[in-house]
Amino acid sequence: MGIQHWKKIWVGSAGNMVEWFDWFVYASFATYFAGAFFPSGNPTAQLMNTAGIFAVGFFMRPVGGWLLGRVGDRRGRKAALTLTVTLMSASAVLIAVAPTYAVAGYGGALVLLVARLLQGLSVGGEYAASATYLTEATDPRRRGFASSFQYVSMTVGQIIGLGLQIILQRTLSDSALHSYGWRIPFVVGALGAAVVFYLRRTMLESEVYDEDASAAEERGTLRALWRYRREAFLVIALTMGGTVAYYTYTTYLTKYLSNSAGLSKDTATLVSFTALIVFAGLQPLAGALSDRIGRRPLLITFAVGSTVLTVPIMTLLRHAGGYWPALGLSLLALVIVTGYTSINACVKAELFPTSVRSLGVALPYALANALFGGTAEYIALWFKKAGIESGFFWYVAGCAAVSLVVYVTMRETKDLDLTGTRGASGVGESSVTTAS
């Protein structure tokens, strides 16, 4: 790939990194600010309240997917990517200045809720705009490799958030972290978004988008998307297992290790931090592998592994007892999840033509995340509070099993053409037909 292609990947990834830094910082610092916005009492109940607000943000993602997906298809990928990072910056500022329960009662929780709604709106469009841009902006023979940087950037954003948490844990007292220290990462996120806003204003548009000559009035409309409803359903189905597994082993893992496995917050954070560094490095390798052998083998490997191994991995993690056993099990889980994360962006983008690609990825993916990804943590805590925590393990395995059926029966998308008015919709009228 040439310098211009790398520049496109870098700018798209940098913005995605900041978006997901802000998104995941909420989850990773929730153990510190949960008590700031709700009355004192059961720590699990406080975490459930903050997890509930976290889940609510996901239900704005379909709205963001529709709105910003439409912008991406009608105004360009650049316009959508610039707008998403602007919204994310505003939400980070709101959380950073939100008043606590002691100062404003539930008014602080209301500000937190509004900020999460803005984040949901932003991320709902960011995923599709970034996935579409990264898939379109490279050589067709290296789409898997290039689009894998979406999850590299997402993971790096989380790594930076966890790294900042480790630094704050070692420089501030526990009381200081609970009092004001948790606000620091949201200030950092807002500043980072301002930098990326400048970068995205000068970024290059996708050549595939520029060369598309389809009618402007048909771009990014629900009417146009309806013609590809089977592809949209496929996006929902193939996302189901992957998003539940991803959020289980990333955003929820730190809480699980500290709240259920009995590890200290410092140790739990260090386990997640180390595991995610390895996870980020695996994404381009798996993406490049998919350019050689296809997308389906990786997706099927992920689904089989998650279906069979989720229950034993989560059970053993609960009894890990220390850093190294917890790290080993976490790495095993994330290696399995890599089969989904490394290529899911390009697989979804490859299903749709240029004129509806951004919306086609955004809306069904956001719906799947609202139903499964955003609720994963809340469901996990609900099972724990009910005294049947292992029920959540079976839930994750069941979602993976459903997606496995889809992966086995879907067509390979690696060699589909993204150009032209029909583009990748050459998948035909039956994207979910049995592969030969």
TrEMBL record:
Record-given protein name: Putative proline/betaine transporter
Membrane topology note: Multi-pass membrane protein
Any one GO molecular-function label of the UniProt entry: symporter activity
GO cellular component: plasma membrane
A Pfam family that the UniProt record links to this protein: MFS_1
PANTHER family: ALPHA-KETOGLUTARATE PERMEASE (PTHR43528), PROLINE_BETAINE TRANSPORTER (PTHR43528:SF5)
Subcellular location: Cell membrane
Segments traversing the membrane: 20-38, 50-68, 80-102, 108-129, 149-168, 180-199, 232-249, 269-286, 298-317, 323-347, 359-380, 392-410
Family the entry assigns: Belongs to the major facilitator superfamily. Metabolite:H+ Symporter (MHS) family (TC 2.A.1.6) family.
InterPro entries found in the cross-reference section: H+-coupled_symporters, MFS, MFS_dom, MFS_trans_sf, Sugar_transporter_CS
Organism: Streptomyces murinus
Keyword Nucleotide-binding included in the entry's annotation: no
Keywords: Cell membrane, Membrane, Symport, Transmembrane, Transmembrane helix, Transport
Residue ranges of every copy of the Major facilitator superfamily (MFS) profile domain listed in the record: 8-415
Function, as annotated: May be a proton symporter involved in the uptake of osmolytes such as proline and glycine betaine.
